[in-house]
UniProtKB/TrEMBL annotation:
Position of the signal peptide: 1-20
Pfam family, one: DJ-1_PfpI
Name this polypeptide is given: DJ-1/PfpI domain-containing protein
Annotated region (Disordered), positions in chain: 444-465
Organism in which the protein naturally occurs: Amycolatopsis decaplanina DSM 44594
Segments passing through the bilayer: 410-433
Length: 465
């Protein structure tokens, strides 16, 4: 029995030794992977947005972002759709007038605070409110947003959530008794958390009167096109879809969509988050006139992959204005950041070779060719990481990849082997400790053999029995 217990304890000790390093380092890397997605700037810079003309004859649509940030495509994709339609005054709004960090470290300067919007509209409610996913869903910090949403709903605004923005609406009590949808990763959890909502799977959006909810990330484009139909007609919506290069427009109804579920290959995200501790840092060059979708494509694709990190840089470090007038503040220049690659999004930047002054970084002009802005970024991700990570990212974005050329390694084998290497190191350390302990035992064993019959250890005297 004592021998069995000794063997059991030995096996347990070696198991703990094998797991200690992978679990400890994996947990640290995992936490850092998610924290870095919304790291707020610390330089105290708070530039003012550039004012835009307001046309009182047009309906007003606003994209609301929280003080803690928002998912970049959830916010910028609907913004560009609504702005490209020409049918709306479109603004970004936030509880406070200060920079807000979107996914991947893109600092947006909101057009208006809630108070500014009240003054602009003479305390009338905006016609449309777009609600992206917020990183602090369920936390007290979302209270200013949920309270404000309740006020706008009671005053007649049409609310549209994107992705897990439906969780924001549900937490405000605005979806009780209604049909709604959400991102495929979170919808099961929302069913448990918000049972009063009738959650619908397998659709890109659910139009339920004065509230419209969409599925994951790029489904927000379909939702925004539906909003455009309702206010300006199918013709205007079709023109907006063509203007942004969206070929999946389905007039009058939600496009068909197979419901995603977790697959075995999705384990790649676990390896990327826990064991890719040497993620390359990509500087994303912000240039004046860049499309909002071109920015979203870079920051969200790389950000959702969890295989690389991004930071926004500028030609001279000063704020820039996007195609439809949003203000973004870079975090320095390529020279003031420790970068592994310099990524230059935007067809305009590619045409003008905007980053040639930084030729030492071998700038990558992602949008030099035709295509929807996300296409080139996904293909670059496949080339520089692997196709498993890229397919996971596309599924997270709710974007089809059948038309893309995804050339790259099939799987991140080096990253996958890291936890096993750490386990072997832990075992070797355990064997070393055990061997050292055994080397100290012989002297004690020899002393035990000369223990007297009375049970006391004594000294052996030559010639004495």
């Amino acid at each position: 029995m004592r021998s069995f217990a000794r063997v059991t304890l030995t096996v347990l000790a070696f198991t703990v030794a094998a797991l200690a390093l992978p679990l400890t380092l994996g947990a640290v890397t995992l936490a850092t992977s998610f924290e870095n997605r919304y790291t707020a700037r610390t330089d105290g810079i708070s530039p003012r947005p550039v004012p835009r003309a307001h046309d009182p004859a047009k309906p007003t649509a606003v994209v609301v972002v929280g003080n803690e940030g928002a998912v970049v495509s959830d916010a910028l994709a609907p913004f560009e759709v609504l702005a490209a339609s020409g049918a709306f005054n479109v603004y970004t709004v936030a509880p406070e007038a200060r920079p807000v960090t979107l996914t991947g470290g893109l600092d947006l300067i909101p057009d208006l605070s809630f108070a500014d919007l009240d003054r602009l509209l003479s305390s009338a409610a905006p016609d449309v409110v777009v609600v992206p996913a917020l990183p602090d869903l369920g936390e007290p910090t979302t209270r200013p947003v949920t309270d404000w949403l309740n006020r706008q709903a009671s005053r007649g605004s049409l609310l549209m959530s994107v992705c897990n923005g439906s969780g924001v609406l549900a937490s405000a009590g605005l979806l009780d008794g209604r049909k709604a949808t959400a991102h495929w990763i979170r919808i099961g959890g929302f069913e448990d958390e918000f049972p009063a909502v009738d959650w619908i799977r397998g659709t890109r959006y659910v139009d339920d009167g004065n509230i419209l909810t969409t599925a994951g990330i790029l489904s927000g484009i379909d939702g925004a096109l539906r909003i455009t139909e309702r206010f300006a007609g199918i013709g205007t919506a079709r023109e907006a879809a063509e203007a942004i290069g969206w070929t999946h427009y389905s007039p009058g109804s939600s496009p068909p969509m197979a419901q995603n579920t977790f697959e075995a290959a999705d384990t790649v995200v676990g390896f990327n988050t826990a064991f890719r501790w040497d993620k390359p840092m990509l500087g994303v060059l912000l240039t004046t006139g860049i499309r909002e979708l071109e920015l979203a494509a870079v920051f969200d694709t790389y950000g959702q992959s969890l295989a690389v990190e991004t930071t926004a840089v500028g030609l001279d470090g000063t704020p820039i204005q996007s195609r439809y007038g949003l203000t973004f503040a870079p975090r320095g220049t390529p020279m003031t950041n420790d970068l592994d690659r310099l990524i230059v999004p935007g067809a305009g930047a590619a045409a003008s070779h905007a980053a040639d002054r930084y030729s030492g970084f071998s700038p990558v002009y992602l949008h030099a060719g035709p295509g929807f802005p996300f296409d080139a970024v996904l293909e670059d991700l496949a080339r520089t990481t692997d196709t498993a990570t890229t397919r996971w990212t596309a599924r997270t974005l709710e974007y089809r990849t059948g038309h893309l050329t995804l050339d790259g390694e099939v799987w991140p084998w080096t990253v996958t082997l890291r936890p096993f290497g750490l386990a072997i190191l832990g075992l070797l350390a355990a064997f070393g400790i055990r061997a050292g302990y055994r080397r100290r035992r012989p002297s004690e064993s020899g002393l035990d053999r000369v223990t007297s019959s009375t049970g006391r250890r004594g000294v052996v005297v030559p010639g004495k029995p």
